[in-house]
Amino acid sequence: MKIGITCYPTYGGSGAVATELGLALAERGHEVHFVTYAQPFRLVGLHDRVSFHEVEMEDYPLFEHPPYSLALAVALHDVVRREGLDLVHMHYAIPHAASAFLAKQMLAEERPLKIVTTLHGTDITLVGLHPSFHAITRFSILQSDGITAVSSWLKDQTVRDFTVPDDRIDVIPNFVDPRTWRPNREPCHRSKLAEKGQKIVMHVSNYRPVKRAQDVVEIFAKIRETVPARLVLVGDGPDRPRALARAAELGLREHVLFVGRHAAPEELLSCADLFLLPSASESFGLAALEAMACGAPVVTSTTGGLPEVVEDGVSGHTFPVGELDRMAEAGVRILTDPEHAKALSAAGRKVAEERFSIDVVVPKYEAMYERVLG
Ligand code: GMT
């Protein structure tokens, strides 16, 4: 198949999943064309059957906010015609699904174009609910030939808040490649991340308010009351300065290492003794799955789709949002009870290998494309 993929190229789960999917499809013999405003952050190096098409935008002084949705529609239209694409797969509904719909209309007299839209999270739970976006989000989702949601929870939210018929949405979960995201990777950066005898507590995110990065620091502070540990913060985003400021207020700044955006987070995760994801909302929680695949025991909130990924007490621990004392207690147990940590780690790895492996999930997308193409 010849497949176009549009996603947000910036640091975030939806762009990561879209890119890994495109690369996996290309490995499986399909031709993949990424169409977006910048090279997706996980699209590094050259790959057979993979091309990147940058959406070009005219900068004109009249535009305080350049109309990216229109430029994307034109880019999709051009790439579909030039490369003879069979379908385009939009990751994150806003504005991608609407741009794809426009491209399809522009092509209507020339050739058919099928659209698959994957709903990732705040396109449904936050941004899409805003009155300025709700109607167009619903319309463009419904105009898609195939709709997927990354968790059953997100599907239910979409059915409820956008009155999309239940049978129009397939749940296709996010995935990892367990060959890349694995425990005991070499080189392990442990000696660069913490001192001898210190446990490594890790958090990876884009530091948006929904991630509650300050809670990560509060939980770490409680853990450090009993366990010598270092907090390693990976990724970057708007709440990162606040999280570091809170660490300084608590007198912990020297015990917090801010790594920033890292090209290969799997190398860091495989050194983690504990991974924290206390988010206010998470449609799936790809970062938790990546940590589990790397053998890091996870403590997360019981929110959104996270319980579909982490089974409390078996493959990690989950607690209601904001229950920081309990999260810290679970963290201390993981860091001080090696047998317990080992059991969680093994169970998390098993989940990643058996339910959320790239080899299990990518064929589900292929099957959907075939169905959509008839
Ligand atoms: O929805 C967002 O805010 C952004 C999006 C992203 O690009 O990272 O995150 C969502 O998609 C990820 C990949 O499917 C999920 O793992 C995240 O849980 C989800 N974020 C939220 O629901 C807040």
What does this entry look like structurally?
This protein is α/β, with parallel strands linked by helices and 374 residues long. The protein has helices at 13-27, 68-83, 96-107, 122-125, 134-143, 152-162, 190-193, 213-224, 240-249, 265-269, 286-293, 306-309, 324-336, 338-354, 358-373; strands spanning 2-6, 31-36, 50-54, 87-91, 114-119, 146-149, 169-171, 199-204, 229-234, 256-260, 274-277, 298-301, 317-319. It has 2 domains: 2-175 and 357-373, Glycogen Phosphorylase B (Rossmann fold, 3-Layer(aba) Sandwich); 190-354, Rossmann fold (3-Layer(aba) Sandwich), CATH 3.40.50.2000. Helices cover 42% and strands 17% of the residues. The strands form 2 sheets. The protein has a 7-stranded parallel beta sheet with strand order 3-2-1-4-5-6-7, sandwiched between helices. Strands 10-9-8-11-12-13 form a 6-stranded parallel beta sheet, sandwiched between helices. Strand 1 (2-6), helix 1 (13-27) and strand 2 (31-36) form a beta-alpha-beta unit. The relative contact order is 0.12. The model has no long low-confidence stretch (mean pLDDT 96). The protein binds ligand GMT. Ligand GMT is lined by residues 8, 12-15, 17, 120-122, 150, 174, 210, 281-286.
